[in-house]
Amino acid sequence: MLSERRLEVLRAIVQDYVGTEEPVGSKALTERHRLGVSPATVRNDMAALEDEGFIAQPHTSAGRIPTDKGYRLFVDKLAGVKPLSSPERRAIQNFLDGAVDLDDVVGRTVRLLAQLTRQVAVVQYPSLTRSTVRHVELLPLATARVMLVLITDTGRVEQRMVDCPTPITEDSLADLRARLNSRVVGRRFADVPQLVQDLPESFEQEDRGTVSIVLSTLLETLVEETEERLMIGGTANLTRFVHDFPLTIRPVLEALEEHVVLLKLLGEAKDSGMTVRIGHENAHEGLNATSVVAVGYGSGDEAVAKLGVVGPTRMDYPGTMGAVRAVARYVGQILAES
Amino acid sequence: MLSERRLEVLRAIVQDYVGTEEPVGSKALTERHRLGVSPATVRNDMAALEDEGFIAQPHTSAGRIPTDKGYRLFVDKLAGVKPLSSPERRAIQNFLDGAVDLDDVVGRTVRLLAQLTRQVAVVQYPSLTRSTVRHVELLPLATARVMLVLITDTGRVEQRMVDCPTPITEDSLADLRARLNSRVVGRRFADVPQLVQDLPESFEQEDRGTVSIVLSTLLETLVEETEERLMIGGTANLTRFVHDFPLTIRPVLEALEEHVVLLKLLGEAKDSGMTVRIGHENAHEGLNATSVVAVGYGSGDEAVAKLGVVGPTRMDYPGTMGAVRAVARYVGQILAES
DNA sequence: TTCTGGCACTCGTGCCCGGTGAGTGCCAGG
DNA sequence: CCTGGCACTCACCGGGCACGAGTGCCAGAA
User: What pTM value is reported for the model?
Assistant: First the structure.
């Protein structure tokens, strides 16, 4: 087990490296941190830390930099979550309060998070899986064409065009709408299939085809849209790390464009509490040089989606985690209000 | 006026430079292009072209590179639009045909365009300004709360929450919906305000407040959503230009995140025909090292929105213009069908 | 046992410097 | 008006060299 001081040395190394972005040596360490021991002692500690794989040197006669494993230890044991200052909190609230609809909330959140952390922000739209149905609307567009509109409790609206096999009267359609709504409003998406299963039977023979196809379109929409959408912002922040350019930035930009990858990434994060994935802990290869800080947010006590940031492994973890958590909290509040 | 051969020399310089990304000299030119004259002659021509500001040398004893003015001449006089190969055309169609809704169409278009041109693609959502109303729906959510849903002929759906000053019966609401739709369906957004102006008067005193607020919300939505949205893709392609890294890429990424800037950019493009803005012709400073190729697209004969690509001034203009035009055409078709 | 100061060693970085070659401008002659 | 020749410029490349940050090890002190 590592002694108290060695952990302290690791913490100092991480802090200095994050600040300066340069390998940190024993002498600089003793000067900037009151460790109470000489550089020589620190050197011994560093050698031990290197043996254990927490730090590494890019080349002989250079200082040490933390490894992924080192950051992991730092995050787990050494770093707290740095709370935001109250002006910052106020700024968040003010910024988010002006949102007019869901797109706007998500858009503002992304910008806010990118600005606060100075990193790439990723915000998932509130998930439909855990959402409930607020309303289903059926609009006759032509004699044999109906538009299906699904409204969720998170304010999301999805629409689908349905071509009917046989024309349907407005009355039948209104009937279907009424019955459909009485069954599914307020219910969770997952429960809907069962709830509407027997609905076609209660209609006249001639309308059954249409009813069936409307229902199956509804179910399709529920499933399809469970593949969530997300919004990204702050990619310009990637250019702050000119060092490993462009070897690093390219695969990251590519990964960011593949929303599927990001959704999987967020999906892997714990539902509650904060998840930090460091460097190679990320399954996707393009993100092996980055860390992901993600957290769930929701309108109630339950998380309906996740948000987070993607940045270099050498990030300010306490600060980033603080910002991510705070933003998630406020977004949750905003969603609960609307 | 420049002689025929000098124009030919400029064309050769542009082509070579776009291909190699390196300053091109007189000797290389005569070797790669059958100009029929010696390097010395080409040198004289190049000196003349430099005097006129069409080309420049980064430093003495280096080859020449085209200036913005040079590219401008190239695009205006020397370059045609390179049509796509028929396999490419088929690929476009296949790729776009699978789209299920508007978001999907736009998303696919962006990916397609980015892939074809290997540059950053920007696609504006079909504009509401020129759109017509397909349907307006009013859904009672609570006793004094109504959801307003607006559906456009381009398949876009917008929703707004309306808090009523006084409760309204479902019958009155249905009445309002019916009257509203009979007036505005099929009409252009711009005409709607006039068409609904006198509507509140025809309602009972107790409902007028609600009717008014519903109408004003509708008008607000029309105006607000005229500020268009857009989608961006292919930012990873920016890393292909490692040369001017990261001095160039940073402001570009920043500009791309400011959708307002991009919308203005697209707005400046001509409604019909293709617009090419080269380097400093772009008002936004961050885009001074890039060129923008934009074109309008639409479901009918009229353009409802624009799409285009952003790339380095040293881009393959004929190829890019060909791809942009082809994609715009197919997207127009897809929209017309749905 | 643990810490400390000293010391030799490594090696990346920055700098100077000369050679090379691509490219130019100019000029005299066809 | 074109061409070949020629002198000149200058970015680029590679080698050599000094510098210094940082290390590992060791003997002695606490």
Answer: 0.83
